[in-house]
Amino acid sequence: MHYRSSRNIFFLAIIVLAVLLGIVPSSASANGKWYLRAFGVWVDPDLDFRTTNDDGDDIRADTDGGFGLGISGEYRFSQRFGVELGIFRANPDVNLHYQFNLLPLSFETSDDLAMTPISLGLNIHLLPPDKRADLYVAPLFAYVRYSDLSFEVSETLEVAGMPILIEDTLEVSVDNDVAYGAALGIDVPISLGPWAISGTVRYLWTDLDVTEPEGDRESMGFNSLIATLGIRYSF
After folding, report:
1. pTM of the model
2. Would you say 198 and 234 are in contact if contact means Cβ atoms under 8 Å apart?
3. What is the DSSP string of 131-196?
4. Tens digit of pLDDT for each residue in 120-174?
5. Taking the domain 32-234, which CATH number applies?
6. Which candidate in 12, 196, 206, 217 could, as Cys together with 179 as Cys, close a disulfide (CB 3.0–4.6 Å)?
7. How far apart are CA 6 and CA 3, in angstroms?
8. Which is nearest to 111 in space by CA: 96, 122, 101, 132?
């Protein structure tokens, strides 16, 4: 896909930055420190899918963002680097727009998609440990679990002056996916204790691979902008 080259350049830049930061001396040690984070999530997927089936019907799909909750744990094994394992669950809506070619009928329906990424990232801490705020960037990998979709249709079509009710349910199977991403985060201590306010912005490159009841398969980009806000506890 067209985004892969820019994504590879981004990860190469992150690796170069990590090497440069790793050789910069720091006055304080953060070795062996744990950070636990709990946060609320807002997910805004970028889905704009259009196709035409064999009957000439026009089919479109898009999304609305959704809220969720998540947790993560980071082990900071050096002054600059930490490994973070995290998981969250959010429920963005998937909207289906269907326009029949041979009938004067169209419908719109939606269903919420349970999206659960399990991510592993390398946090690169950009500021010296003696600074109050902790700013970091991270490349990350994720295994994304998706729920299946169920679209319910209930529309009335008028034929020869008589209303005809059309009711149906479209079940769509969604495959899980392996994804890549990047994060920018900041932790701001609340006091001299172990608590801090934690916020991140992530971008996840992932696909939505679906199978219709007839066995037809479609793959569409489902790249997601993810914002989190919560608390951090360190020890």
Report:
1. 0.80
2. no
3. SSSEEEEEEEEEEEEE--EEEEEEEEEEETTEEEEEEEEEEEEE--EEEEEEEEEEEEESSSSSEE
4. 999 999 998 778 899 999 999 999 999 999 988 777 766 667 777 777 788 999 9
5. 2.40.160.20
6. 206
7. 6
8. 96
